[in-house]
Specification:
The protein is an alpha+beta fold and 513 residues long. It is 58% helix and 6% strand.
């Protein structure tokens, strides 16, 4: 059972220390927790060959272009515009592709899945040193069994990878605070590499999640006249940010669309209403600030029941709350979470996945709550009863939600995604049978981008080149009006009239003899 006491100023156990690792020893609760988490995470985004939604096709297309065309530093979207995310996730997917025997679906999702497993490993070892067995159990269950993590863990996106880099950087600061020792050169270099990885994962957002909370911590320590070893110096921040800024500047110089699509559209739209037209015209507007309580309310909902239990504990257990705040490591977690949440709440453009990196530190704060809480062993509110009950409720809620979501997704009367996925499979099967490369044409849409990525086609057919491609006997997949052929030079060889988008049916065409 966890101790009801936090040892102030005691050195934190090393993350790699065997003593800090949870010793399951065949304990059934650990096996049930691990199997339950694994099943929900792997089931949530099945089938993996469907890249519809959440910009998955755009991210997958990046690594596809790396492998096929050797564009390792600057890539494009299926629309032809420059890719709006830095290339680290694409590099990892391209590296996993040959290791997995040419299985693209696994290579695309491997970075998120492995980052999720890495976060679990780090959380388990760290939380065991804070709250022992039940502290580690709570941290793992808190982070894993909620709506956000289950959905993000296997998406072809950068959110989980970013959460891992931010967690690593935040825990290095946490260890320095606990150990109260100066930064060594090796730790500074490691921290700089973590910042660099965060920048090449999703841009300079790591500044919001780590640098500004760390500066706030320094100001707090200065005002309270308390010494602190949390600050690693400026060069571990400035060097990686400078490398990322150099990559950004070269991209802007090489491609005039890079500045419009990456700097203005991807970054600028968070603060202002910016519209980038195909002609190159950029329109600026103003964006109203969203409600400040949006993210706290979203976290309260999507992390239920863990979020509600933490709020209730903080309000009820006054003695435990005071004991928790007396520990400098716990205070750093509170500052880290609070400043990041406040700053992200000030950003007008809100989307709940952008606040996902604070879920892991929240889970560690829950482990501190287990260690600091005033528990009554052997009675109704003992740790194993409370945490076990919360875990069971979480499995019932989010496991049931995952099953319902999958059943509803496979209902063709309610969800067109089933028909879209069937289109990808039928056309891929036809391409293998005829040993032909299939090109994509037609208006840009989420479905078209998913089709291009599924068919491993990195160059779309331009409108002015369509007739030439058909005359060369190329296979073209494109939407047609309901009446069918619109040009005598085209012959329909595959008709997918069960997939409708904007009153069009998708058809596979080839030029007539």
């Amino acid at each position: 059972m966890p101790s009801s006491d936090i040892h102030n100023n005691a050195p934190a156990p090393a993350l790699s220390s065997p003593a800090a690792a949870p010793r399951t020893g065949g304990n059934i609760k650990w096996w049930l927790l691990g199997i339950g988490i694994l099943v929900m995470v792997l089931l949530r985004n099945q089938p993996w060959d469907c890249l519809i939604g959440y910009d998955q096709a755009k991210q997958a297309f990046v690594s596809l272009e790396m492998q096929q065309e050797g564009r390792w530093w600057y890539q494009h979207l299926p629309t032809g515009y420059p890719a709006t995310k830095p290339p680290l996730a694409g590099w990892l997917s391209a590296a996993f592709y040959p290791l997995l025997g040419g299985w693209w679906e696994g290579a695309w999702r491997a970075p998120s899945l492995l980052a999720f497993m890495g976060i679990l490993w780090i959380l388990g070892k760290t939380a065991w040193g804070i709250g022992r067995e039940w502290g580690a159990f709570l941290a793992l269950a808190f982070f894993s069994i909620n709506m956000l993590t289950i959905r993000i863990a296997t998406l072809v996106r950068t959110d989980m990878l970013l959460a891992l880099t931010i967690l690593l950087g935040g825990l290095m600061i946490w260890r320095q605070i606990q150990e109260d020792q100066p930064w060594s050169l090796s730790r500074r270099m490691t921290f700089a590499l973590i910042v660099l990885a965060g920048c090449f994962t999703k841009g300079p957002v790591i500044v919001v999640y780590l640098l500004l909370p760390l500066l706030t911590w320094r100001i707090m320590c200065w005002r309270r006249r308390e010494p602190s070893q949390a600050w690693p110096g400026w060069w571990p921040w400035l060097v990686p940010i400078g490398v990322f800024a150099l990559w950004l500047a070269i991209g802007c110089i090489k491609d005039h669309q890079f500045f419009r699509m990456v700097v203005l559209k991807e970054f600028g739209t968070n603060f202002a209403a910016i519209s980038v037209a195909d002609s190159g015209d950029v329109t600026f507007g103003t964006r109203r600030f969203g409600m400040m309580l949006t993210y706290p309310l979203q976290l309260l909902h999507r992390l239920f029941p863990w979020s509600l239990a933490m709020v209730i504990w903080a309000l009820v257990d006054r003695q435990g709350r005071r004991r928790l705040m007396s520990d400098p490591g716990a205070r750093w977690l509170v500052v880290w979470i609070g400043v990041a949440l406040l700053l992200m709440s000030l950003v007008p453009n809100k989307r709940v996945d952008r606040i996902f990196p604070i879920v892991a530190p929240l889970a560690l704060l829950g482990a501190y709550g287990v260690a600091a809480g005033t528990w009554r062993e052997g009675r109704r509110w003992s740790p194993h009863r409370v945490i076990g009950g919360l875990t069971l409720v979480s499995f019932l809620i989010w496991g049931g939600y995952t099953i319902y979501w999958q059943l509803d997704r496979h209902n063709p009367e309610k969800n067109e995604e089933l028909a879209r996925r069937e289109l990808c499979r039928q056309v891929s099967r036809y391409a293998r049978a005829t040993q032909r490369n299939i090109r994509i044409a037609g208006p840009v849409s989420d479905l078209n981008q998913s089709l291009m990525t599924t068919l491993r086609c990195t160059k779309p057919v331009a409108k002015d080149k369509l007739d030439d491609e058909l005359q060369n006997r190329s296979y073209i997949l494109m939407p047609l009006p309901p009446e069918g052929r619109t040009n005598d030079a085209w012959r329909v060889v595959f008709w997918a009239d069960h997939v409708k988008e904007k009153n069009c049916s998708y058809a596979l065409l080839i030029g007539s003899r």
